[in-house]
Amino acid sequence: MSDIKAILSKVPLFKQLPDEAVTLLSECAEEVSFEAETQILTEGAMASTFYVVKSGEVSLQVQQPQSIPLVIQTINGNSLLGLSWISPPYQWSFDAIALDKVEAVEFHAACVREKLQAHPEYGFLIMQSILGVFLERLQATRTRMLDIYGVTKEVIPGD
Amino acid sequence: MISANQTSATIADSINEPEASPFVPLPYKIVNKHHDTQDIATITIEPVDKAIPPYKSGQFNMLTVYRVGEIAISISSPPTSGKRIVHTIRDVGAVSHALFNLEIGDVIGVRGAFGTDWQTDEPGDADYLVVAGGIGLAPLRGAVVELAEKVAARHNVNLLIGAREPAQMIYETDMKRLEQMGVKVYKTVDMADSGWKGSVGLVTELIEKAVFDPKNTKALICGPEVMIRFTARKLIEFGIAAESILVSLERNMQCGVGLCGHCQLGPYLICRDGPVFPWAPPVKDLLSQKER
Ligand SMILES: Cc1cc2nc3c(=O)[nH]c(=O)nc-3n(C[C@H](O)[C@H](O)[C@H](O)COP(=O)(O)OP(=O)(O)OC[C@H]3O[C@@H](n4cnc5c(N)ncnc54)[C@H](O)[C@@H]3O)c2cc1C
Ligand code: FES
Q1: Per the count of CB atoms within 10 A, which of A154, B1, B94, B123 is most buried?
Q2: B253 lines ligand 2 (CB under 6 A)
Q3: What burial letters (b/e) apply to A97-107, b meaning 16+ CB within 10 Å?
């Protein structure tokens, strides 16, 4: 088994996938690392790669005029970094900055898209795994919007 | 019980002294006060005369602000801190506002200690995951100090804290001391700018960072009930047994001793059967249902 395939088969996100699906992914992937403060993704740029973060933490940020950037979310070990490569216009919506040294697996998006189309039986399973990440992030975002740490307003019947 | 080294004067005192009534507040003086955030303050109190009986981490007191009212507030000091007790108060309404505004030297009434506890007096041989959301760290503070003292040298003790924003983090000065004692502290907030160097996201996302053996881990959770539900489910996904998870719940209270029924949750009175419960039915199911 190639090194990269061995790494991918241990990532929880891909653990349920059949061996053939992991092989397809590994053919489009390589190991990379980023020093702290490196800008990994840039808002508006082509989403030609995406990553599985193995260690370290990445901050997803949005620039705001005349102020310091806002952090949307931080991404750490075993998580997927970059989702905009999946559908057109293949452009990043946020900046991604390494908060500390980051070890990751980099995927070449065009290569992955080609493999998914050429092998729909595995393509579906791979997309199902990635959809799980979308769902989890959507639910987390909705929960954060609830402001659960705020003061609960007591509901008095009839009010 | 009278011990052998008591003097005749103290023996006479203890014979004449009636048992502290759970209905009569004992006067305590504020000896220290610290503002944690804009709307959260931590006070240290000590008895003016008689003290409440010994307590355990996770229990609560009923605090009276004279001429204003009485509310339930968790004990935030570990049981080892003697007669001094620490309480952390968030200013949300009439009584908590009055408590929040008291100063060093002011006197309040204290009844307690009431309710069930985190069982950290006998923590056993296990890793610990302590998960706190917002002011939910207050009922856990004593337990974390106990775990730092009794467990951290032998097992992993992880403290996972979630808050709305960095300025809402409480006990910042405690954290350094806990880390020195071997507790691994992880923090996350719902929103921040890039000046914040911790994580941004749900407190459940910190579980991935924590170091623990799921087969031998006990978890303590306190915070808003939505957060308790999500965290307990996530811990079970990570392989922690439901019976190893304890949660602390809150309801409006009046008597604090199981008489008035104000704090009812299904078949339970939270002041008597809680506030700390195992994450098991029916508590687990009651938390997912709309209360009527
Ligand atoms: C076992 C137990 C332990 C507690 N420990 C602590 C503690 O350590 N520190 C602390 O600050 N509080 C704690 N509380 C909550 C505290 O008792 C309430 O905040 C208090 O009763 C509010 O009374 P009040 O008169 O200030 O406000 P009220 O006038 O009764 O309420 C004002 C507003 O605050 C809301 N509110 C009431 N309680 C809460 C709450 N718990 N969380 C969010 N919003 C609320 C009400 O719905 C209302 O909208 C605890 C409660 C229980 C049952
Ligand atoms: S507060 Fe009275 S029964 Fe619980």
Answers
A1: B123
A2: yes
A3: bbbeebebbbb
